[in-house]
Amino acid sequence: MTGVLPSDPIGRRIICDGEYATVHYVGMVPPTPGIWLGVEWDNPLRGKHDGRHEGTKYFTCSHPTGGSFIRPKMANFGVKFLTAVTKRYGPSDDWNETMVVGKKTVELVGFELIQEEQSQFKTLQDISVRECLVSEAGEKGEIHMSCPNISTLNLSKNLLFSWENVAEIAFQLEKLKTLELSENKLSLPSDPSSLANSFRHLTALSLNRSGVTWNTVLQCAVMWPELEELHLASNNITELERPVNCLQSLTLLDISNNHITDGNQLCAVSDLPRLKQLIISENKISSINFPAPLGCCTESFASLNHLSVDGNGISQWAFFNELNKLSNLHSLNCQNNPIMESDKNPETTRQIIIAKISRLKILNRTVILPQERKGGELDYRKMFGNDWVKSGGHQNTDLNNPLMEFLLDHPRYSELITKYGAPDEAEIKQPQPFALKNQLLSLTIMCPEKADQKPINRKLPESMTVQKVKGLLYRLLKVPGSELKLSYESSKMEGKEIQLENDLKPLHFYSMENGDRVLVRW
Questions:
Q1: Most distant CA pair in the chain: distance in Å?
Q2: Which residue, 66, 120, 216, 453, could crosslink 47 as a Cys pair with Cβ 3.0–4.6 Å?
Q3: pLDDT of 21 higher than 60
């Protein structure tokens, strides 16, 4: 449709020289003769002005350099839906089939080709016409006749310009459940409820990088009565409002890579009854607070079992204290936060998080095994034992009365004492001052299946990972690390061999001590 000016160009989306824009003006721009289009570019660096020319305001731009005037012949207003589908999924341009009629060979064209296309399109269920310049549905009913079985449709980064525009396509797809509309800029419908029938079976919707606000989403939500998954990443969303009579079927909400700074904004969606997954990664959240008495669960996010907060500003342990109030939180992603990059050993940080959130089963995509939970909780109990004693904690239950300040910082500590008993004096004695010799393990490296290989004595840092140990052995034994299998025998447990299975774990994770023997096989 390059150069063809539609009857209703205002508000339409176009592409020109590879750049996307929205038409805001059609008409004369004196003193130059002829018709011009006043457009606002998606990329404001592409424009020259804010809609003014020689002192006259022709249209309004959201950016001072977002506007330009271009000739209609430069604008591509897009194609019909089926044109894009045919180009991507139809027979190739060199498709050729012949048949013999009498003594003549006849090429199958026209009706036969249409039959071939229609037969092929009717089997399509999952299609993508991303960046195919789709701008309209086309003739009434033609999509339903050609592609009746589509259930998953990717319409991202096209030239769709309104929800009515999209509804004309969706209405003809009775089996449509998943719709990708990211990177389209859609105007708000005048009556959203009138379009609900077009999206009556829709369960998953993506509007990433589409410029929508949360308020706009709430106004449109009446169109999606059965929606379960909603993806709104990268939309500059700063505030959330409570959904009223909408989005009640939502099980997954992705608002990652937005500009939410106040964690308490999340309380706006905390009453969604079926919400199981909340993805708020790459925002600027540093704290959150759920109303609930000490040691009790909150009624907020009653169904939530997975939370992603990667790449935020979390730097205080209080954040994880609050997450322990969520009654069904089983999985947490929290990488690339300041607290994960503190001076503490990464394994210690992981242990503290596990100890603070009692129902957690998966942390940063790694399953928490029962022995890891027990070890983390025991170490946490020991780690903060001195603080507990100083605040009024005591092994004698009659004398045990820690200050509320301590309990607020460590709300699970009393629970851990009930579970494992109060730490004794030996457990919570002050650690020795840091010295390199206190961090090294004296180990004997042996190759039980290589009789000619003499034992090697080495002092290795207890923080050294199994992977780095294999790298060291590669240099010593000239055997590729990928072929090495490591285990160890404890000097305190003769005859028991413990496998070093995880290359990313440090030696202290396996409770290795001075005098232990590392067994190497390949």
A1: 109
A2: 66
A3: yes
* C-alpha–C-alpha distance, residues 243 and 247, integer Å: 7
42's enclosing H/E stretch is none
User: Quick one: pLDDT at residue 483?
Assistant: 80
Q: Please name the fold of domain 13-74.
A: SH3 type barrels. (2.30.30)
Domain with CATH 3.10.20.90 in the chain: 436-521
The CA–CA distances, whole Å, from 122 to 3, 81, 156, 214, 445 equal 32, 15, 22, 37, 66
- When pLDDT is cut at 50, 70 and 90, the band that residue 337 belongs to is very high
Q: Is the pLDDT of residue 507 over 90?
A: no
Fold annotation for 436-521: Ubiquitin-like (UB roll) (3.10.20)
Strand partners, 456: 445
**Whole-prediction pTM:** 0.77
Read off the tokens for 467. 């992977």
Domain with CATH 2.30.30.190 in the chain: 13-74
Rounded CA gap, 479 and 511, in Å?
A: 26
Residue 269 backbone phi and psi in degrees, to 5 = -110, 10
Asked whether the predicted pLDDT for residue 434 surpasses 50, the reply is: no
